[in-house]
Amino acid sequence: MNEHFRIEGAGIDSGRRELLIAGALSATAAALPAGAAAQAPAVAKATEASTPAPVLSRVALRVNGQRYEKEVDTRTTLLDLLREHLQLTGTKKGCDQGQCGACTVIADGRRINSCLSLALMHEGAEIVTIEGLGSPGQLHPLQAAFVKHDGYQCGYCTPGQICSATAMLDEVRQGIPSHVTADLDARPLLSPMEMRERMSGNICRCGAYSNIIEAISEVAGVGAKA
Predict the structure, then answer these.
(1) What does the buried/exposed string (b/e) look like for 66-82 if buried means 16 or more CB atoms within 10 Å of the residue's CB?
(2) What's the pTM value of the predicted model, to 2 decimals?
(3) End-to-end distance of the chain based on CA atoms, in angstroms?
(4) Residue 189 has what DSSP assignment?
(5) Which residue in 122, 91, 117, 87 sits closest to 104, CA to CA?
(6) Strand 126-128, strand 56-63: pairing
(7) Which whole-number Å values give the CA distances from 128 to 65, 82, 100, 224, in the listed order?
Protein backbone atom coordinates (compact mmCIF):
# COMPACT_ATOMS: atom_id res chain seq x y z
CA MET A 1 0.00 0.00 0.00
CA ASN A 2 2.76 2.41 0.96
CA GLU A 3 4.56 1.57 -2.29
CA HIS A 4 1.36 2.33 -4.16
CA PHE A 5 1.02 5.76 -2.56
CA ARG A 6 4.71 6.47 -3.22
CA ILE A 7 4.27 5.82 -6.94
CA GLU A 8 1.10 7.92 -7.10
CA GLY A 9 2.90 10.73 -5.27
CA ALA A 10 5.77 10.59 -7.76
CA GLY A 11 3.26 10.83 -10.60
CA ILE A 12 1.60 13.83 -9.01
CA ASP A 13 4.94 15.55 -8.41
CA SER A 14 6.03 14.84 -12.00
CA GLY A 15 2.78 16.20 -13.43
CA ARG A 16 3.02 19.31 -11.31
CA ARG A 17 6.61 19.87 -12.38
CA GLU A 18 5.70 19.56 -16.06
CA LEU A 19 2.80 21.96 -15.57
CA LEU A 20 5.09 24.54 -13.97
CA ILE A 21 7.64 24.20 -16.78
CA ALA A 22 4.95 24.56 -19.44
CA GLY A 23 3.60 27.65 -17.72
CA ALA A 24 7.03 29.24 -17.52
CA LEU A 25 7.69 28.57 -21.20
CA SER A 26 4.32 30.02 -22.17
CA ALA A 27 4.98 33.17 -20.17
CA THR A 28 8.41 33.56 -21.76
CA ALA A 29 7.04 33.04 -25.27
CA ALA A 30 4.29 35.59 -24.66
CA ALA A 31 6.82 38.16 -23.49
CA LEU A 32 9.19 37.78 -26.47
CA PRO A 33 7.10 39.37 -29.26
CA ALA A 34 6.54 42.51 -27.21
CA GLY A 35 10.27 42.86 -26.54
CA ALA A 36 11.16 42.13 -30.13
CA ALA A 37 8.58 44.63 -31.34
CA ALA A 38 10.03 47.27 -29.05
CA GLN A 39 13.54 46.67 -30.43
CA ALA A 40 12.53 46.44 -34.11
CA PRO A 41 12.50 50.20 -34.87
CA ALA A 42 15.94 50.67 -33.33
CA VAL A 43 17.39 47.71 -35.25
CA ALA A 44 15.84 48.89 -38.53
CA LYS A 45 17.17 52.41 -37.96
CA ALA A 46 20.67 51.13 -37.25
CA THR A 47 20.61 48.91 -40.34
CA GLU A 48 19.41 51.78 -42.51
CA ALA A 49 22.14 54.04 -41.17
CA SER A 50 24.86 51.46 -41.88
CA THR A 51 23.70 50.72 -45.47
CA PRO A 52 25.04 53.31 -47.92
CA ALA A 53 22.73 54.66 -50.58
CA PRO A 54 23.47 53.28 -54.06
CA VAL A 55 25.56 55.44 -56.38
CA LEU A 56 23.76 55.89 -59.69
CA SER A 57 25.27 56.67 -63.07
CA ARG A 58 24.02 56.80 -66.64
CA VAL A 59 25.28 54.43 -69.29
CA ALA A 60 24.55 54.53 -73.02
CA LEU A 61 25.20 51.59 -75.31
CA ARG A 62 23.79 49.81 -78.32
CA VAL A 63 22.27 46.37 -77.86
CA ASN A 64 21.26 44.34 -80.90
CA GLY A 65 21.41 47.49 -83.03
CA GLN A 66 19.23 49.62 -80.74
CA ARG A 67 20.55 52.43 -78.56
CA TYR A 68 19.69 52.40 -74.86
CA GLU A 69 20.47 54.87 -72.11
CA LYS A 70 19.85 53.81 -68.53
CA GLU A 71 20.57 55.10 -65.05
CA VAL A 72 21.88 52.21 -63.00
CA ASP A 73 23.63 51.42 -59.75
CA THR A 74 27.36 51.58 -60.48
CA ARG A 75 27.63 47.96 -59.23
CA THR A 76 25.20 46.68 -61.89
CA THR A 77 26.71 44.00 -64.12
CA LEU A 78 26.16 43.93 -67.85
CA LEU A 79 24.19 40.71 -67.31
CA ASP A 80 21.77 42.38 -64.90
CA LEU A 81 21.45 45.41 -67.17
CA LEU A 82 20.40 43.13 -70.03
CA ARG A 83 18.04 40.97 -68.01
CA GLU A 84 16.57 43.33 -65.42
CA HIS A 85 16.65 46.71 -67.16
CA LEU A 86 16.27 45.80 -70.85
CA GLN A 87 14.22 42.61 -70.35
CA LEU A 88 16.50 40.64 -72.68
CA THR A 89 16.23 37.40 -70.72
CA GLY A 90 17.72 35.15 -73.39
CA THR A 91 21.09 35.71 -71.73
CA LYS A 92 21.09 33.40 -68.72
CA LYS A 93 22.44 33.79 -65.21
CA GLY A 94 24.13 30.52 -64.36
CA CYS A 95 26.99 30.44 -61.86
CA ASP A 96 27.38 34.26 -61.63
CA GLN A 97 31.13 33.62 -61.29
CA GLY A 98 32.26 33.45 -64.92
CA GLN A 99 32.70 29.68 -64.91
CA CYS A 100 29.74 28.28 -66.87
CA GLY A 101 29.41 30.58 -69.90
CA ALA A 102 25.60 30.75 -69.79
CA CYS A 103 25.81 34.55 -69.75
CA THR A 104 28.07 34.86 -72.81
CA VAL A 105 27.35 37.83 -75.08
CA ILE A 106 29.34 39.51 -77.85
CA ALA A 107 30.74 42.93 -76.93
CA ASP A 108 32.39 44.89 -79.74
CA GLY A 109 32.96 41.64 -81.61
CA ARG A 110 34.43 39.71 -78.67
CA ARG A 111 32.69 37.13 -76.51
CA ILE A 112 32.63 37.93 -72.82
CA ASN A 113 31.04 36.66 -69.62
CA SER A 114 28.54 39.40 -68.94
CA CYS A 115 28.22 38.40 -65.26
CA LEU A 116 31.82 39.52 -64.64
CA SER A 117 31.61 42.84 -66.46
CA LEU A 118 30.13 46.04 -65.06
CA ALA A 119 27.58 47.77 -67.28
CA LEU A 120 29.44 51.09 -66.96
CA MET A 121 32.50 49.53 -68.58
CA HIS A 122 30.58 49.28 -71.85
CA GLU A 123 29.72 52.91 -72.45
CA GLY A 124 29.24 53.30 -76.21
CA ALA A 125 29.77 49.58 -76.87
CA GLU A 126 27.99 47.38 -79.39
CA ILE A 127 26.47 44.39 -77.59
CA VAL A 128 24.91 41.40 -79.33
CA THR A 129 22.81 38.92 -77.37
CA ILE A 130 21.04 35.77 -78.53
CA GLU A 131 17.99 37.91 -79.37
CA GLY A 132 20.12 39.87 -81.84
CA LEU A 133 21.49 36.84 -83.70
CA GLY A 134 18.20 35.55 -85.04
CA SER A 135 14.47 35.37 -84.58
CA PRO A 136 11.97 32.48 -84.58
CA GLY A 137 11.08 33.27 -88.18
CA GLN A 138 14.67 33.80 -89.31
CA LEU A 139 17.14 31.71 -87.35
CA HIS A 140 20.85 32.35 -87.33
CA PRO A 141 22.70 29.46 -89.07
CA LEU A 142 24.07 28.30 -85.73
CA GLN A 143 20.60 28.37 -84.16
CA ALA A 144 19.25 26.26 -87.02
CA ALA A 145 22.19 23.84 -86.74
CA PHE A 146 21.68 23.43 -82.98
CA VAL A 147 18.06 22.51 -83.66
CA LYS A 148 19.00 20.12 -86.46
CA HIS A 149 21.71 18.33 -84.48
CA ASP A 150 19.88 18.44 -81.14
CA GLY A 151 22.66 20.54 -79.63
CA TYR A 152 20.66 21.22 -76.51
CA GLN A 153 18.50 19.39 -73.98
CA CYS A 154 17.29 21.68 -71.22
CA GLY A 155 18.36 24.66 -73.36
CA TYR A 156 19.59 26.79 -70.46
CA CYS A 157 23.18 27.04 -71.69
CA THR A 158 22.22 27.25 -75.38
CA PRO A 159 22.12 31.07 -75.77
CA GLY A 160 25.63 31.31 -74.33
CA GLN A 161 26.83 28.38 -76.42
CA ILE A 162 25.56 29.96 -79.63
CA CYS A 163 26.92 33.44 -78.86
CA SER A 164 30.27 31.91 -77.93
CA ALA A 165 30.36 29.76 -81.08
CA THR A 166 29.52 32.76 -83.27
CA ALA A 167 32.44 34.77 -81.90
CA MET A 168 34.69 31.71 -81.89
CA LEU A 169 34.22 31.18 -85.63
CA ASP A 170 35.13 34.83 -86.20
CA GLU A 171 38.29 34.32 -84.15
CA VAL A 172 39.31 31.42 -86.38
CA ARG A 173 38.62 33.46 -89.54
CA GLN A 174 40.88 36.18 -88.13
CA GLY A 175 43.63 33.64 -87.55
CA ILE A 176 43.64 33.99 -83.76
CA PRO A 177 45.34 30.89 -82.27
CA SER A 178 44.23 28.90 -79.24
CA HIS A 179 46.16 26.93 -76.63
CA VAL A 180 46.07 23.82 -78.84
CA THR A 181 47.02 25.46 -82.15
CA ALA A 182 50.06 23.54 -83.38
CA ASP A 183 51.54 26.15 -85.73
CA LEU A 184 51.27 29.75 -84.53
CA ASP A 185 52.50 31.04 -87.89
CA ALA A 186 49.75 29.33 -89.88
CA ARG A 187 46.02 29.95 -89.96
CA PRO A 188 44.42 27.66 -87.34
CA LEU A 189 42.49 24.68 -88.66
CA LEU A 190 39.06 24.22 -87.09
CA SER A 191 39.53 20.66 -85.90
CA PRO A 192 37.34 19.05 -83.22
CA MET A 193 40.20 19.58 -80.76
CA GLU A 194 40.32 23.29 -81.63
CA MET A 195 36.56 23.59 -81.21
CA ARG A 196 36.55 21.80 -77.87
CA GLU A 197 39.37 24.00 -76.57
CA ARG A 198 37.80 27.22 -77.81
CA MET A 199 34.35 26.29 -76.44
CA SER A 200 35.66 24.95 -73.12
CA GLY A 201 34.39 28.00 -71.25
CA ASN A 202 30.79 27.03 -72.01
CA ILE A 203 29.47 24.21 -69.83
CA CYS A 204 26.55 22.02 -70.88
CA ARG A 205 25.21 20.32 -67.78
CA CYS A 206 23.14 17.98 -69.95
CA GLY A 207 26.26 16.74 -71.75
CA ALA A 208 25.25 17.54 -75.34
CA TYR A 209 28.85 18.33 -76.30
CA SER A 210 29.13 15.97 -79.28
CA ASN A 211 25.94 17.39 -80.79
CA ILE A 212 27.18 20.94 -80.21
CA ILE A 213 30.42 20.13 -82.05
CA GLU A 214 28.41 18.65 -84.93
CA ALA A 215 26.29 21.80 -85.16
CA ILE A 216 29.30 24.12 -85.17
CA SER A 217 31.12 21.88 -87.66
CA GLU A 218 28.24 22.06 -90.12
CA VAL A 219 28.15 25.85 -90.03
CA ALA A 220 31.94 26.04 -90.30
CA GLY A 221 31.92 23.62 -93.21
CA VAL A 222 34.25 21.08 -91.58
CA GLY A 223 33.83 17.47 -90.51
CA ALA A 224 33.05 16.88 -86.84
CA LYS A 225 35.06 13.65 -86.86
CA ALA A 226 38.14 15.06 -88.57
Answers:
(1) eebeeebeeebbbbbbb
(2) 0.76
(3) 98
(4) P
(5) 91
(6) parallel
(7) 8, 10, 19, 27
